[in-house]
């Protein structure tokens, strides 16, 4: 009897490490031979075979032709029962390589779209290009998984393989058990960040510091708030210098705290009061789910993904074009509602727990 085999594909090792280790473990426990194909030389737990494929983030890079050839050889040499591919480039190349593989008819191809690159409010030309690419690749897909409702509705318009289907799964799962057990010390955190502990309100954003994450609107809103409000940013990125400049111009530099990359995010979340997420584009933001699980009220931009997570019982969803003014208004005039939101978000976050998502994925994989 031949071994059952599964291959996970993503364009970089970091994507596998960040999101898919529990899924590799799941398949190992089910007796599968587990493979990973991604760009990098990292060795993963629960992985039997690692293939370093030269995927490039830029879909037009000539190296992706080489990546296609490398991956097709892997597929021809191994008769995989399931291929689960992720990320735009990894997902497209994997489906094209599988289409031309000698094992195409016997392999179940699953693709998770972690936020289509066509969406409301995007450049129409870019939307046309990315929609066309996704529509083409969908023809060679057995199961197309979307992580937000807007993408789900768009995917339903695609023609998949015969008997193919579109599924909605809200993310890859957050470890609510670890979050629940995480300890924190607000007084120590305030001391470490040199913030006065006197009626202080801590706003928090977690994520890469770039223009898409849009943290500058929070800094501008901070200038309209009492001096007891401080803004904590966890993450690194090329836009830090610009944000520091804005903070100085608005005379709030001493109330904006850049903590860089942190391994203690859950502890920091529990030390803060309100999670603010003004991003311009998302698939389904993990940091918002984690903040909810930590019991934070969430104030987020009205975009795809965000409004899948946050409702009026757990926070506020506000328009991008007036985020600065609406944020300051909410923090000054509606803060009495925040206590009820904390408990509600903790409870709602169970929908996105790793346990709940793994259970749904087991059904999709056919492991039940």
UniProtKB/TrEMBL annotation:
Residues 5-148 form the Glycosyltransferase subfamily 4-like N-terminal domain. InterPro entries: Glyco_trans_1, Glyco_trans_4-like_N, Glycosyltransferase_grp1. Keywords: Transferase. It comes from Faecalibacillus faecis. This is Glycosyltransferase family 1 protein. Residues 198-347 form the Glycosyl transferase family domain. Pfam families: Glyco_trans_4_2 (PF13477), Glycos_transf_1 (PF00534). GO terms for molecular function: glycosyltransferase activity. The keyword Transferase applies. PANTHER family: SULFOQUINOVOSYL TRANSFERASE SQD2.
